[in-house]
Design a protein that fits this description.
By secondary structure, this protein is mainly α.
């Protein structure tokens, strides 16, 4: 690691860790949605909305700290990118839950549970990785595994699209379900953006 003569602001690390922990909360709510009947989904959506607001607050706190700090732990553009990508994950997960409720989806297509399982695993890995930004240790396996998970998410997404267009669903239902699975795919992409940003930071700091 490159030796520095100047002190570095450490609160960023805690804020990134808190943001990632909140994403784990969101992923658990997605898992809960899978097993819930239609009458319980509204309450889950409310809790997801609260988690998304907490994520927004965490992101704004990072931006405020960034704008008021003379010394930062790594490049400002990387801090901004990492915070924004973490925020995107929560936004996509909240949007997916909201769409399920708004569209009154009775039954999600088979394969959505696999999408959500991938997101839950990526959330766990991301939460485990954020504290390691302090030392830049043990991060390589994290971004490799998240990239692998994103590739897996791509395959699941393609299979889901093929299933939706196999003639079983009417046109309106296809549009609704496709929007939901597309948003979940965007969440997987956002996890990859976080991992790629962490890799960029680690390379710069090495």
């Amino acid at each position: 690691m490159r030796f520095r003569l100047t002190p570095r602001e450490t609160s960023f690390y805690d804020m990134f860790a808190a943001s990632a922990d909140n994403i784990v909360t969101g992923s658990k709510l997605l898992m809960e949605l899978l097993g819930a009947d239609a009458s319980a989904r509204g309450e889950i959506a409310e809790r997801m909305r609260a988690a998304e607001h907490a994520g927004d607050d965490a992101t704004h706190a990072i931006f405020h700290q960034l704008n008021s700090s003379f010394i930062t732990p790594f490049d400002r553009e990387d801090i901004y990118s990492l915070a924004s990508s973490l925020d995107d994950i929560m936004d996509f997960m909240e949007e997916a839950v909201d769409l399920v409720v708004l569209y009154n989806i009775e039954e999600l297509p088979k394969g959505v549970e696999q999408q959500i399982e991938v997101l839950a695993r990526a959330a766990e890995l991301t939460a485990e990785a954020m504290p390691n930004l302090r030392t830049m240790d043990n991060l390589t396996e994290y971004w490799i595994e998240v990239n692998r998970l994103e590739n897996q998410a791509d395959q699941i997404h393609r299979k889901l699209l093929a299933h939706l267009f196999n003639g079983k669903y009417d046109a309106i239902e296809v549009l609704k379900l496709k929007q939901i699975v597309d948003v979940l795919e965007e969440a997987a992409d956002a996890f990859e953006h976080v991992a790629n940003t962490v890799e960029t930071i680690a390379v710069k700091e090495s």
